[in-house]
Amino acid sequence: MIFFWAFVVGGLICVLGQIMFDVFKLTPAHTLTTLVIIGALLDGFGLYEPLIHFAGAGATVPITSFGNSLVHGAMAEAEKHGIIGVITGIFEVTSAGISAAIIFGVIGAIIFKPKG
Known about the structure:
There is one protein chain. The N and C termini lie far apart (47 Å). The protein is an all-alpha fold. It has one domain (2-111). The chain is globular. The protein has six helices and no strands.
């Protein structure tokens, strides 16, 4: 059943993003930012962790999970180190994904030629 709920929840998050594109005519940057903020707000209110436990990858793969990670890391480190922990917690939790995006982007730029 976990695969079913992962598919449904992940699909609903994607449908929300598509509605933002089609109905509200938001740009990709606005849609991306809005979904990250929604994930951050849900984690701030303690609602994203139960969603992850319910839907698994359906909640951890979409971009809303990045907002969740930012807030989750900031709050966890703030408890340990105070206000400095807010900044370090954000980087600690998200650094692997950001580093991978940069590394693979550079590798892709080296390997492939742009069209045009």
